[in-house]
Specification:
globular, 5 helices, alpha+beta, 6-stranded mixed beta sheet, 36% strand
């Protein structure tokens, strides 16, 4: 009887260990986690959610961003400059800017570093006149997994030519 109990107990322990080390069918792949960064970026702009936007970036002097917008420096270097850049998200009414994403792609460079590319259409509504303008961009983000979380360490946006 003791042998059966010990064998049963060892079988349960072995099964539990196998379940522990086997990836879950529900576990998101690295690519899925990274695509969520791209989707959350668009969501943060659309919902004027600075806290969400802030949570996507590594807060470090070593991060950078290129944005082709008139009136701003072309290169922002370090979290403080990027935070200033995105501070307009804090005061923009929700729904003023809506981003639509097309053809998002993830290119894994290493287990903890990836590059994302996506086409974006930005629909902006002037709060006074209600006139809408549409802009199209290509966006590239370099993301790195730091302390178990994927974070943006470099961003680059470029406007698509108008035809």
């Amino acid at each position: 009887m003791k042998t059966k109990t010990i064998v049963g107990l060892l079988s349960c322990i072995a099964l539990a260990f196998c379940l522990l080390i086997t990836p879950s069918a529900n576990a998101a792949s690295a690519e899925d986690e990274i695509l969520q960064i791209v989707k959350n970026f668009a969501k943060a702009v659309t919902n004027s959610d600075f806290e969400l936007m802030s949570s996507l970036y590594l807060h470090s002097p070593n991060i950078s961003q290129f944005e082709p917008v008139t009136g701003y420096p072309f290169l922002e270097q370090g979290w403080e400059e990027i935070e200033t850049w995105w501070s307009s998200v804090k005061t923009t009414p929700k729904g003023t800017n809506v981003i639509y994403l097309y053809q998002p792609h993830v290119n894994m460079l290493k287990d903890d570093v990836a590059v994302t590319t996506v086409y974006q259409t930005l629909v902006s509504t002037d709060q006074t006149t209600k006139a809408q303008s549409i802009g199209q961009m290509r966006q590239t983000l370099v993301v790195q997994k730091i302390n178990g979380k994927w974070l943006i360490v470099h961003g680059h946006g470029s406007e698509l030519p108008i035809k």
